[in-house]
């Protein structure tokens, strides 16, 4: 590792570090630094600490050695931090950039000890990193702007890694020690302006030189903005320049660079393993702008919240579907008609539900519908026509939701008066089927038409069922519209949570029910085997010469009297028909064998031929 140390002034190898790049021996350090970077990949805290201090007699702090190397490469030993362009060139760019990437991996994770080692290193290596972010690197920038952008981007990432999960104000103060807040904000504006020029085609050389994986000016500016945003928590002047807070929102909107980056920056709060709360600021990828509000609301309302940490697990289980939806939404912009229908998906759903409510109100109030409508007074008819005209004019001049709703209600009453309730419900049913169909088209347009997605989409199946009931209500009977009101469960988060609380443990509820049935069955078996004699009752005999057959038809007990035995034996069906006929019109010849009906609720007693008392078990009568 001797090649990584800072050479002396008279060292021939050190003399090669300058305008003409570095010698081949020093350039070999690129592979060594890359190897060290890979050792620390995936935030390997053990190797990160080991590279700083080894548990043996001779220990080597490779963190400081790497900082000394970049210090020598960038002219830090000469005090020329403002003249980086004289030291960084195409010859040593790869080595300088590898130093930044390796140092970033040394402290990511985070590794607090390595963060302190980089920030408070004796040779002030962190000042070199800050200088790369803020200063122009000319003449390299004029020849290869893409290389300069790559250096600035990696240097900004290194500073963010030093600040990662570190709430120590000394770290921010050390970074801001040699930085004027205005210089940091100017660097953000400069990167933004460079990006705008590249997009406009004014910097053709930047567009030609930048590859797909290389940093863009806007990306560099965004990383610098996030760095400034985190540092502003410890510096009031920088916070004021960044226009943080609602009081400075007007100033931020007037600055296109700050407004651009602030709208594309978000933050979340994460609870670390030591129960500390950390705020993470990150760049929102451009493709996230294609995520629909409906999907955001669905994730918010349907997220698993039963256990601690379940929200994160549930969210990551949805990431693939959300990402595929964002890709599809980006492609959807190429089809203007389908996009115009899909973007109004909440509107179609609201219209369909509102029509369902109106249809059910009309059925509940006016059913059964008269074949001929009653004549309405002239004053009511004139009032409705005036209301329609006035509300139509208001909708044209100042359209709003309330005015449109009043106009629809007025038109519905006008149709009822003029054409009848049946015709009105037919028109509303057709509109409802059309709105629900448009909603399904917009739903498919937003989710994509992949067969794999459609198979496991429960919401799509439910809305198809709703469409079937819309058609049944239109064609078969108006009572089918009542099923459509169940959609309020999906529309209201409170009701949805109530249903989930009941059905979430459906398996345990079902098993409990099965256990209850088994216990009742066992009780019945035991009662029948051992306790059936306890249910024996004494029954009085029927007097001789009188046959009594009792039937319960709507609470009426009918007896057949036959003193001489001349009445025929009736089957239950014949007795029911005879009782019904005699209840409508009493005929002495036909109903001579029947007594007058009397109201009773007695249970039918069995016919007894002999006069001896008979014991009947209660369970048998049941």
> Strand pairing plus helix content: what structural class?
mainly alpha
Within the largest sheet, what's the order of strands? 4-5-6
Largest sheet: 3 strands, antiparallel
Note the beta-strand portion.
under 5%
Radius of gyration: 43 Å
- Percent helix among the residues? 55-70%
Number of β-strand runs: 7
Number of DSSP helical runs: 31
Mean pLDDT reading? 75
Low-confidence segments, ≥5 residues, pLDDT <50? Answer: 1-20, 545-559, 596-622
Describe this structure in words.
By secondary structure, the chain is mainly alpha-helical. 60% of the residues lie in helices and 5% in strands. The chain has 31 helices and seven strands. The chain has helices at 12-15, 24-27, 29-39, 45-52, 62-73, 93-107, 112-119, 125-134, 140-143, 145-163, 169-175, 181-200, 204-209, 217-231, 236-241, 249-254, 256-263, 293-302, 310-332, 336-342, 345-366, 378-397, 401-419, 421-447, 451-455, 458-475, 488-491, 493-503, 506-530, 572-584, 618-621; strands spanning 265-271, 277-283, 536-539, 552-553, 556-557, 598-599, 614-617. A three-stranded antiparallel sheet has the order 4-5-6, with no helix packed on it. Strands 1-2 form a two-stranded antiparallel sheet. A hairpin with a 5-residue loop joins strand 1 and strand 2.
């Amino acid at each position: 590792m001797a090649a990584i140390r800072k050479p002396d002034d008279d060292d021939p190898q050190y003399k090669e570090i300058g305008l003409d790049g570095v010698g081949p021996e020093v350039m070999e350090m690129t592979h060594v630094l890359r190897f060290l970077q890979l050792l620390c990949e995936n935030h390997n805290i053990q190797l990160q600490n080991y590279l700083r201090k080894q548990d043996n007699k001779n220990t080597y702090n490779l963190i400081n050695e790497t900082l000394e190397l970049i210090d020598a490469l960038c002219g830090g030993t000469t005090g020329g931090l403002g003249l980086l362009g004289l030291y960084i060139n195409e010859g040593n760019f790869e080595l300088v950039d590898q130093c930044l990437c390796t140092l970033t991996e040394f402290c990511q994770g985070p590794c607090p000890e390595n963060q302190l080692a980089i920030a408070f290193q004796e040779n002030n290596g962190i000042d070199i990193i800050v200088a790369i972010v803020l200063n122009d690197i000319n003449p390299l920038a004029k020849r290869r702007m893409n290389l300069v952008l790559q250096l600035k981007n990696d240097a900004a990432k290194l500073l963010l890694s030093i600040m990662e999960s570190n709430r120590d104000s000394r770290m921010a103060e050390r970074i801001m020690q040699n930085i004027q807040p205005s210089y940091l904000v100017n660097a953000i504006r400069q990167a933004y302006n460079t990006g705008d020029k590249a997009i406009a085609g004014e910097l053709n050389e930047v567009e030609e030189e930048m590859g797909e994986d290389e940093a863009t000016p806007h990306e560099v500016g965004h990383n610098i903005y996030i760095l400034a945003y985190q540092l502003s928590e410890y510096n009031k002047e920088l916070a004021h320049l960044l226009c943080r807070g609602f009081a400075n929102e007007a100033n931020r909107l007037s600055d296109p660079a700050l407004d651009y980056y602030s709208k594309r920056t978000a933050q979340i709060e994460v609870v670390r393993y030591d129960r500390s709360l950390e705020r993470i600021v990150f760049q929102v990828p451009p493709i996230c702008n294609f995520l629909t509000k409906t999907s955001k609301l669905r994730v918010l309302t349907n997220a698993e919240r039963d256990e601690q940490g379940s929200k994160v697990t549930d969210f990551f289980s949805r990431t693939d579907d959300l990402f595929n939806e964002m890709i599809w939404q980006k492609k959807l912009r190429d089809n203007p008609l389908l996009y115009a229908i899909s973007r109004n998906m909440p509107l179609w759903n609201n219209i369909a539900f509102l029509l369902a409510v109106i249809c059910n109100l009309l059925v509940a109030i006016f059913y059964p519908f008269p074949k001929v409508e009653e004549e309405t007074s002239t004053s009511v008819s004139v009032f409705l026509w005036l209301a329609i005209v006035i509300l139509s004019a208001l909708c044209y001049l100042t359209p709003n939701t309330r005015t449109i709703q009043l106009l629809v209600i007025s038109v519905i009453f006008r149709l009822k008066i003029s054409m009848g309730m049946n015709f009105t419900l037919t028109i509303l049913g057709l509109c409802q089927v059309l709105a629900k169909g448009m909603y399904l088209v917009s739903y498919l347009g937003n989710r994509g038409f992949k067969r794999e997605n459609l198979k496991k989409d429960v919401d799509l199946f439910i809305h198809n069922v709703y469409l079937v009931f819309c058609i049944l209500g239109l064609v078969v009977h108006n009572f089918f519209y009542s099923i459509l009101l169940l959609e309020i469960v999906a529309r209201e988060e409170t009701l949805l949570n109530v249903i989930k609380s009941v059905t979430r443990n459906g398996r345990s509820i079902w098993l409990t029910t099965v256990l209850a049935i088994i216990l009742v069955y066992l009780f019945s078996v035991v009662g029948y085997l051992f306790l059936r004699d306890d249910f024996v009752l004494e029954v009085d005999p029927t007097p001789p010469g009188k046959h009594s057959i009792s039937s319960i038809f709507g609470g009426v007990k009918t007896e057949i009297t036959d003193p001489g035995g001349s009445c025929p034996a009736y089957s239950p069906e014949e007795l029911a028909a005879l009782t019904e006929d005699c209840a409508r019109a009493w005929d002495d010849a036909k109903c001579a064998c029947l007594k007058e009906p009397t109201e009773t609720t007695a249970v039918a007693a069995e016919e007894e031929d002999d006069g001896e008392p008979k014991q009947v078990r209660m369970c048998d009568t049941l």
